[in-house]
Automatic annotation (TrEMBL), chain A:
Gene3D superfamilies: M75 peptidase, HXXE motif. This is Signal peptide protein. One of its GO terms (cellular component) is cell envelope. Residues 48-336 form the Imelysin-like domain. It comes from the Bacteria. It comes from Pseudorhizobium pelagicum. Residues 1-21 form the signal peptide. Keywords: Signal. It is found in: Cell envelope.
Automatic annotation (TrEMBL), chain B:
Transmembrane segments: none annotated. It holds the Pfam family DUF1513. SUPFAM superfamilies: YVTN repeat-like/Quinoprotein amine dehydrogenase. InterPro entries: Quino_amine_DH_bsu, TAT_signal, UCP028101, WD40/YVTN_repeat-like_dom_sf. This is DUF1513 domain-containing protein. Gene3D superfamilies: YVTN repeat-like/Quinoprotein amine dehydrogenase.
Length: 368, 361
């Protein structure tokens, strides 16, 4: 190219014409637009939207149980509220991996769950509030203007399972219970917003399904597919880096069991389970395998295998995190989850992304 | 981008590298180096998933490779001390100082507690000090770390970058001014690379006194452009500072992506044709200036486009579709371009080139 340009008397502005291959690697073709659109539509209609609807329903059930607990406290009502908390948290965990769109607008993500919280900001604020009740927090809509750390699952977990929570079983309509109910209602409200925003036919779902020049999110199907793959990759990273490594970084590292999410209520693994289930469900219901060539479909099988292995081991984990990090066999399982978590990220990021011709596995163009 | 000095030819590099270095090269690498008019360095990911830094000929042929513990991002080079530094991709905590001719042992620099590197840095013109962009993540403020290159890169101080989400930084030719691009996006290592404040970004360009970190000038962006993250820098002729941004607002907006400012002046944006702004996909990943040719080079991996501008007028001189276009650097003539999918100028290699290239001297 240089000689041609020089001969033509033109300035050489780039020197990029590929003329020589040191180690040639062929890049797979990016799947056809129609194929990607089908996958995206399934991801939206069969995973994201039902995921938020389920979460909204579970959050509503939680608010109902909190209401019942406040009206008629009893050990049984408290147990019911705790069970509803676990269900709602699990429901959130499944769709939590969609860390994009309305979920990250207006601080919704942090308002639903403020975590990690290494400085225990939420705990301190909740403890201060319980020590000095402020009725403005329990008024309808009163929480939405408060610190995000006081609004979501983290705060509610302390209400239900933290120091002093046993009083909930006996004290009718006490401040602690009313605050817990307000949190549950707040979560239900935010979940409702997510449902409304994703259900609007001309809103975010349309932006995902119909990439194009005028689209506020994606100019083409490749950008939308990169974002969808990002949901999986970043979700897998979250499980490993934020849900496990926050308290266990490996064999020779110090452990921090009280940094584990929901260690008080024994729901640490509930969340990991929900996240892993969400990853698998998204991959399958959107039929991401359809974008792979025949000789590459085993990638989905291998991702599935890793996910199932991790789910199996998650089910064998002790919900008492303090005990888990102190027990050799449990630590081996934690190591297994860390190793396989890394493997999962690689399989999604590099193998699947590479197989459909995206280098999103290398960079999601997220600030590099 | 930190290139700011004269070009080096292959004889210069070979002379600097020495006979011992040449003797370590394979015949193919030596041949590549001998016929090169210029030499670059860039981070890469190899096919086996490992990371490293490579020196590269002007044709894009890999001359030498050096392993890294994790992924690198930007690089700095001192033509005086002939030392280079590769910075970990954010939120990484290592930077590796080394001599491209492999004389001397590499020095691993570790970010202090409570800080991580943002992926960029620059040497003072005499090579004595290394300045790095860092995140004080619990304080949510960008910092400029100061390291003594003559004392094994001991950390000797830090300056407040006077903004959040600091990314690229460079040093003026006379060494008196640090130029800092505060991208305005809050991140925290607890949340990986997640952007935490897209609805309340605070991008800015800041000029600091290199002696004491005192503020010389701070440019914020107008309210309509508060979602334009100012991320990459290059110094042009007469101290002109070129900056490139990444737009976090609506994808169908057409914000200005490139601008320039001279010390003492207000910032100005380059009015790019709509076709080019659209082609850059609202995301410029790297910028470089070839002062001799008066050209500014831009790349967008998201848009798969490389663009060169007239440094005097801002007019588009050339555009080229390059899928996953990554790094840019001043070439002997024009602009060198690499890509995530292994392309570096005329050569395609079995590596993924990282986002930035540095010209060695």
């Amino acid at each position: 190219m240089l000689n041609i340009l020089r001969a033509a008397g033109l300035a050489v502005l780039f020197a990029t014409a590929p003329a020589f291959a040191q180690e040639e690697t062929l890049r797979p073709e990016i799947p056809a637009d129609a194929e990607i659109r089908t996958v995206i539509a399934k991801a939206v209609d069969d995973f994201i939207r039902p995921g938020y609807r389920d979460f909204h329903a579970a959050a509503g059930a939680l608010a109902g149980e909190m209401d019942a607990l406040c009206a008629a406290p009893s050990p049984d009502a408290l147990a019911q509220a705790k069970a509803a908390f676990a269900e709602a948290a699990l429901s959130w965990a499944r769709v939590e991996i969609v860390r994009t769109g309305p979920a990250i607008e207006d601080n919704r993500f942090e308002r639903i769950l403020f975590y990690p919280d290494r400085k225990s900001t939420g705990l301190k604020q909740v403890q201060a509030l319980l020590a000095k009740p402020d009725d403005s927090t329990t008024a309808p809509g009163g929480l939405s203007g408060k610190s995000v750390a006081m609004q979501g699952f983290g705060a509610l977990e302390f209400v239900l399972a933290g120091t002093g929570s046993e009083a909930l079983a006996t004290e009718a309509d006490g401040f602690r219970c009313r605050y817990g109910r307000a949190i549950a209602q707040n979560i239900e409200h935010i979940a409702g917003e997510l449902v409304v925003l994703w259900e609007a036919p001309d809103g975010v779902q349309q932006a995902w399904k119909e990439p194009g020049p005028g689209n506020p999110l994606f100019r083409n199907t490749q950008e939308a597919m990169t974002a969808l793959l990002g949901v999986l990759v970043h979700g897998a990273e979250m499980v490993r880096d934020q849900r496990i490594e926050t308290f266990y970084k490996g064999e020779d590292s110090q452990t921090f069991p009280r940094q584990a999410l929901f260690w008080r209520s024994g729901n640490t693994w509930t969340m990991v389970e929900g996240n892993l289930e969400g990853l698998g469900r998204l991959m399958h219901v959107s039929d991401m395998a359809a974008l792979l060539s025949e000789d590459q479909t085993s990638i989905i099988g291998s991702v599935d295998f890793v996910l199932k292995s991790m789910l199996r081991v998650t089910g064998e984990m002790n919900s008492d995190i303090e005990a888990a990090v102190s027990d050799d066999s449990q630590r081996q399982k934690l190591d297994f989850l860390l190793v396989n978590g890394r493997d999962l990220i690689g399989r999604l990021n590099d193998q699947y992304g590479g197989a459909i011709g995206l280098t999103s596995g290398f960079s999601f163009s997220d600030g590099d | 981008m930190t290139w700011r000095s004269g070009l080096i030819d292959r004889r210069g590099f070979l002379r600097a590298a020495g006979v011992a270095f040449a003797a370590t090269l394979s015949p193919r690498s030596l041949m590549a180096l001998e016929r090169a008019d210029a030499v670059y360095a860039s981070g890469f990911r190899a096919a086996d998933g490992s990371f490293g830094i490579a020196t590269v000929s002007e044709r894009g042929e890999i001359v030498d490779r050096m392993p890294l513990p994790a992924r690198a991002h930007g690089m700095a080079y001192s033509p005086v001390s002939r030392r280079a530094v590769a910075f970990a991709r954010r939120p990484g905590t290592f930077a590796m100082a080394f001599q491209p001719n492999r004389s001397g042992d590499p020095v691993m620099i570790t970010a202090p507690d409570g800080r991580h590197f943002y992926g960029h840095g620059a040497f003072s013109p005499d090579g004595h000090f290394l300045y790095t962009s860092e995140n004080d993540f619990d304080g949510n403020r960008g910092m400029i770390g100061v390291y003594d290159a003559n004392d094994d890169f001991a950390r000797i101080g830090e300056f407040d970058a006077l903004g959040i989400g600091t990314h690229d930084m460079t040093v003026s030719d006379d060494g008196r001014t640090l130029v800092v691009a505060n991208g305005g996006i809050e991140t925290h290592p607890d949340f990986g690379r997640t952007k935490l404040n897209l609805d309340r970004m605070e991008p800015s360009l800041v000029l600091l006194d290199a002696r004491d970190g005192q503020l010389i000038q701070k440019h914020t962006l107008p309210a309509t452009l508060r979602q334009l993250s100012t991320r990459h820098l290059a110094i042009g002729d007469k101290g002109k500072i070129w900056f490139a941004g990444q737009w976090e607002g609506a994808r169908n907006a057409l914000p200005p992506l490139v601008g320039r400012v001279s010390p003492g002046d207000d910032i100005g944006f380059v009015s790019l044709p709509e076709r080019i702004t659209d082609g850059l996909a609202n995301y410029v990943g790297a910028i470089a200036v070839n002062r001799r040719d008066g050209i500014v080079g831009l790349t967008s991996p998201k848009g798969g486009l490389a663009v060169s501008l007239d440094a005097r007028t801002g007019a588009v001189l050339r555009e080229e579709r390059i899928p996953d276009a990554a790094g840019v650097a001043p070439a002997g003539h024009g602009i060198a371009v690499s890509s995530y999918d292994g392309r570096f100028n005329q050569t395609r290699s079995g590596v993924a080139w990282d986002q930035h290239i540095i010209r060695l001297q």
